[in-house]
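In the design runs reported in the main text, the only information available to the sequence generator was the tokenized backbone. The following block is the verbatim input for one such run; it is reproduced so that readers can re-run the procedure and compare outputs position by position.
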């Protein structure tokens, strides 16, 4: 009985050791935290209210009329809900202004800082007002 218990414990410890990276959160290292890109007159194509992150998919037209498809990542639904978001905050066809931190690796992808709706309402991704400026610490 003792060897069976010891073997089970060893297997559990081994499984947790191998799987521990799955429990880690990736943070915001993939984004350029020192640069905010502002995309005006963006049109929402889809709003995903899902874990682990809410996502806003939107199109932006450049000066020549070319359309680029963007994806903006925000916090989890439970985290942005306390900031005033809900599953109906954005609808396909809404025209918004997007402030985001662009990806270091992908084009047209970023971490949302805030979204300004057509009526002037602002949906923030963080309760912080300093936008992460390190000189404020």
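Verbatim output:
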């Amino acid at each position: 009985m003792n060897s069976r218990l010891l073997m089970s414990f060893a297997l559990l410890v081994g499984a947790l050791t191998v799987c521990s990276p799955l429990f880690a959160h990736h943070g915001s290292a993939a984004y350029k935290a020192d640069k905010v890109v502002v995309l005006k007159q963006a049109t929402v194509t889809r709003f995903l209210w899902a874990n682990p992150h809410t996502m806003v998919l939107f199109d932006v037209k450049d000066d020549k009329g070319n359309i680029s498809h963007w994806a903006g990542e925000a916090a989890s639904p439970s985290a942005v809900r306390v900031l005033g978001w809900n599953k109906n905050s954005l609808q396909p066809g809404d025209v918004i202004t997007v402030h985001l931190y662009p990806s270091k690796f992908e084009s047209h992808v970023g971490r949302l800082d805030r979204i300004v709706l057509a009526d002037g309402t602002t949906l923030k991704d963080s309760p912080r007002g300093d936008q992460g400026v390190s000189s404020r610490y």
